[in-house]
């Protein structure tokens, strides 16, 4: 028996390189989950309650905000929830949608004062992320509760805001509210 003293006749194979390692698989799964969630948000419209929270958060860009406001006006016309109907009325004012406001207000009484009042937990986000709309909602709520003094204060604040922000429908509602409660 002789020993080989030189280089071996067969080279040793290179270690097998794995393409899919555990960290890469975990990363890819996370990316797919994020993309799936984003697609779901884009394809499935939010409920009225979800739209209210998203608007109140104030994080939506202008295009997304308009889409959410339109959803609220549409759902506010048919929703059994009084709070969602109120939010639909506020959203209609934000969009300058007189027909939408009339349709939503029809479900809340046809008079100047919206009735019935939403539950206290449904009032929290009625501002929909906008101080002007917050004063509108507060004026409507105070007037519906029979607090003329608070209603007048909010109607006047709303009228003052409409001097700085071009919002004809809100300005009309404020002027009528000041006249009604003043």
Task: Give a summary of the structure in a few sentences.
With 182 residues, the protein is mostly helical. It has helices at residues 22-43, 48-57, 62-76, 82-94, 98-106, 131-144, 148-164, 168-181.
- Quickly count the helices: 8
- The oligomerization state is single chain
Uncertain runs with pLDDT below 50, 5 residues or more?
A: none
Work out the number of β strands: 0
Radius of gyration: 29 Å
DSSP helix fraction: 55-70%
Give a written overview of the molecule:
By secondary structure, the chain is mainly α. It has one domain. The protein has eight helices and no strands. The protein is elongated and about 105 Å long. It starts with 21 loop residues before the first helix and ends with a helix.
Layout of strands and helices, then pairs:
Layout: H1 22-43, H2 48-57, H3 62-76, H4 82-94, H5 98-106, H6 131-144, H7 148-164, H8 168-181
Helix pairs in contact: 2-3, 3-4, 4-5, 6-7, 6-8, 7-8
Main features:
182 residues, mainly alpha
